[in-house]
Design goal:
Blueprint (H helix, E strand, L loop, with lengths): L8 E4 L2 H6 L8 E4 L4 E5 L5 E3 L5 E4 L3 H15 L5 H11 L2 H17 L1
Parallel strand pairs: 1-3
Antiparallel strand pairs: 2-3, 4-5
Helix pairs in contact: 2-3
The protein binds zinc ion.
Length: 112
């Protein structure tokens, strides 16, 4: 286990597919420890689409980072109280993410 590895994220088209995959109604994303998978609804990312149906940009990249933070927490730390897990995930996306967002976004665009 290394911090410098890829963490796969499965993007799903709508809430029905999200729920079938183990998501929670009303949530935009979730990390599922049982199958080590991060699941995110594409519409929750507020994407802008190209005319040929590709994602041109996303409005909420922090959602991906938040859920991948949970994946890293689970794999590196294991079980912690939910308030601590959520607090860490939110904290890591405030100042740090804002400062690095311009560097993060192009890499995310290349991935999508
Ligand atoms: Zn969370």
């Amino acid at each position: 286990m290394s911090l410098f590895q890829l963490y796969p994220v499965r993007l799903v088209s709508d809430e029905d597919v999200f729920l079938e995959g183990g998501g929670i109604r009303g949530a935009g994303g979730i990390y599922l420890p049982i199958n080590k998978q991060t699941l995110i609804r594409i519409d929750s990312l507020q994407p802008e689409w190209t005319e040929d149906g590709r994602i041109a940009s996303i409005g909420k990249p922090r959602l991906i980072a938040h859920e991948v933070t949970h994946q890293i927490q689970h794999e590196l730390i294991g079980k912690l109280p939910i308030w601590l897990l959520e607090g860490m995930a939110v904290y890591l996306l405030t100042d740090y993410f804002t400062a690095s967002e311009s560097a993060y976004s192009p890499r995310l665009r290349n991935f999508l």
